[in-house]
Amino acid sequence: AQSVTQPDIHITVSEGASLELRCNYSYGATPYLFWYVQSPGQGLQLLLKYFSGDTLVQGIKGFEAEFKRSQSSFNLRKPSVHWSDAAEYFCAVGAATNAGKSTFGDGTTLTVKP
Amino acid sequence: DADVTQTPRNRITKTGKRIMLECSQTKGHDRMYWYRQDPGLGLRLIYYSFDVKDINKGEISDGYSVSRQAQAKFSLSLESAIPNQTALYFCATSDPGTQTYNEQFFGPGTRLTVL
């Protein structure tokens, strides 16, 4: 069975500071990995995804993530956070053998200080 | 126009009432999903459907039922609502293409309160 762990429930950063949100997954084969963002009162929006190839993937809104197979991690990064990045972030793992389903982490809430 | 819509957006109901949440999509995707979101618990899969004749239980299907009326419509019903079903419910779709079919497209959510 696949699983996702987001170790940080809540992170606070200052505007302009760098950000890293952690995600660890458990899956026996090569996973499909996703980061979604949920702004207050909104549904989830895909930030970026990894299926194969280059392990550093670029997403929308200036986010990037790096797949590290040896560490079973897919951490999300942004060099300079903007106040509008305050939201909840979900990491998810899927697999070709899992009939299109994804398993989501519990989420990390990001607060941005002025 | 939104690709995945949900109605209602907010609903307050009483214990024991039957309630239906509706989801429609214009993305042309075959696969549709219903999730429940509770604070600190992420998203949990209730039911999913790969086409109108293929419906499957997720990890927390007890107390829920679904209907896939058409490729574009997938409804979630609470037969007899109870307070611990108070949550935010999301519908999602995905496309069974070769590499993208795990990527999910979400509706805006329905906030359900059961008193």
Please describe what this structure looks like.
The complex is a heterodimer of chains A (114) and B (115). By secondary structure, chain A is mainly beta. Chain A is built from no helices and twelve strands. In chain A, the strands form three sheets. In chain A, strands 2, 5, 6, 10, 11 and 12 form a six-stranded mixed β-sheet that branches. The radius of gyration of chain A is 14 Å and the shape is globular. Chain B is mainly β and 115 residues long. In chain B, 0% of the residues lie in helices and 55% in strands. In chain B, strands 2, 4, 5, 6, 9, 10 and 11 form a seven-stranded mixed β-sheet that branches. Chain B has a four-stranded antiparallel β-sheet with strand order 1-3-8-7, with no helix packed on it. The relative contact order of chain B is 0.33. The model of chain B has no long low-confidence stretch (mean pLDDT 91).
Topology:
The complex is a heterodimer of chains A (about 110) and B (about 120).
Chain A: E1 3-5, E2 10-14, E3 19-21, E4 24-26, E5 32-38, E6 44-50, E7 56-58, E8 64-68, E9 73-78, E10 87-94, E11 102-104, E12 108-113
Parallel strand pairs in A: 2-12
Antiparallel strand pairs in A: 1-4, 3-9, 5-6, 5-10, 7-8, 8-9, 10-11, 10-12
Chain B: E1 4-7, E2 10-13, E3 19-25, E4 31-37, E5 43-51, E6 54-57, E7 64-70, E8 73-78, E9 87-94, E10 105-106, E11 110-114
Parallel strand pairs in B: 2-11
Antiparallel strand pairs in B: 1-3, 3-8, 4-5, 4-9, 5-6, 7-8, 9-10, 9-11
Main features:
heterodimer; A: 114 residues; mainly beta; 6-stranded mixed β-sheet; 12 strands; B: 115 residues; 7-stranded mixed β-sheet; 4-stranded antiparallel β-sheet; 11 strands
SSE class of chain B: mainly beta
Helix coverage percent of residues of chain B? under 10%
What is the subunit arrangement here? heterodimer
How much helix, percentage-wise, in residues of chain A? under 10%
Residues in β-strands, percent of chain B: over 45%
Question: What's the N-to-C terminus distance of chain A?
Answer: 41 Å
The biggest beta sheet of chain B is recorded as: 7 strands, mixed
Give the strand tally of chain B: 11
Q: Average pLDDT value of chain B?
A: 91
